[in-house]
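User: Here's a protein and a ligand (zinc ion). What would the complex look like?
Assistant: Let me lay out the input and then the predicted complex.
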Amino acid sequence: MAIIDGARLDVWKALLDKALADYNLQILREGLLWAMQPTVTENQLAPLKEEGLLGHVLNMDEQLVAELISDPNVFLQAADNLKALSAGKTPLKALKFNFIDDKIHSSRDKLPVLLEELQLQTRKKLHPLLEYLPPGAIMLIAADHGFRTNLYHNKDSKEEPLYLHGSNTFFEALAPWTLVKKR
Ligand SMILES: [Zn+2]
């Protein structure tokens, strides 16, 4: 299971559509969820944790991505939920990718420039997972919330963010998910 923090629908499509095809991932099902209010990560994950559905969340920073690349089998076995699921047990483990959320909290770039940067990050951080997933593996990829552009952004202010999330606009609340299978 992979969570992509902040991946709103247009960004999701731009980053994932081609990548899934390139790495031979077949879409079994896909859909959209309406994120809990306020649309921040904690509010999406906390109910799953309280229900005992979600256990360990691994933050896929550069170091963990490097571990995945250096020994994919060991890494993916440790992240695999198959044993827990077939024993009818939860909580499940999830890999969480933060590069979109990190970027929207720091970027002052216009959307096309932001997207370019996110493409690079996707290639660096997410593509190795798609690449090393063994044939036959099934993975749920889900966003937790999206983001919106701050229309009243004051360019002269050094602190004011250009992108925001937390409220209930489509851009923030629609959270895409897809169930994929490696061919
Ligand atoms: Zn955030």
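Summary: The chain has one domain: 2-182.
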